[in-house]
Amino acid sequence: MKDDGPFSNLDVAWDYLFGEALVFEDFGRNEETTHQGVMFSTLKGYQDTDSGMVLVTVCENNVPGYSGCSYESNASTIISLELFPYAFQQPLVCDGNDCITESIFGLGRFGYTYLK
């Protein structure tokens, strides 16, 4: 993301709504320039059959009264992404008797699933 203020003054909150009880983990951030960088997380347990909404809230942490980043915080921007079942299918790769699915989409590194 890119901001007119310092990237270091931005926090992020990750939420998954209206679906199974999935959680985000492995949070990280990479500052590319003073005003630009990448924030990321992994949505643990995501399956192709899941439906719900990913809600990403980005907050400026240098505003008066700031106490944490959450939905509808002052000086925040919200991005919502609706997930539909099978909209982001993981490719199935087979080699011999073993198959794996490997998926990396937008907001998260959804990981590896090993199938037998």
Overall geometry comes to: elongated
Mean pLDDT score: 80
| Main sheet record | 3 strands, antiparallel
| Low-pLDDT segments | 104-116
Query: What distance lies between the first and last C-alpha atoms, to the nearest angstrom?
Result: 39 Å
Number of strands: 8
Strand content: over 45%
Tally of structural domains: 1
Derived from helix and strand composition plus strand pairing, the structural class reads mainly beta
Spell out the helices and strands N to C. Answer: EEEEEEEE
Report the C-alpha radius of gyration, rounded. Answer: 17 Å
Q: So how many helices?
A: 0
Strand order of the largest sheet: 1-4-5
Portion of residues within helices: under 10%
Describe this structure in words.
It is a single chain. 0% of the residues lie in helices and 50% in strands. By secondary structure, the chain is mainly beta. The protein has one domain. The strands form 3 sheets. The protein has a 3-stranded antiparallel β-sheet, with no helix packed on it. A 3-stranded antiparallel β-sheet has the order 6-7-8, with no helix packed on it. A hairpin with a 2-residue loop joins strand 6 and strand 7. The model is unreliable at 104-116 (pLDDT under 50).
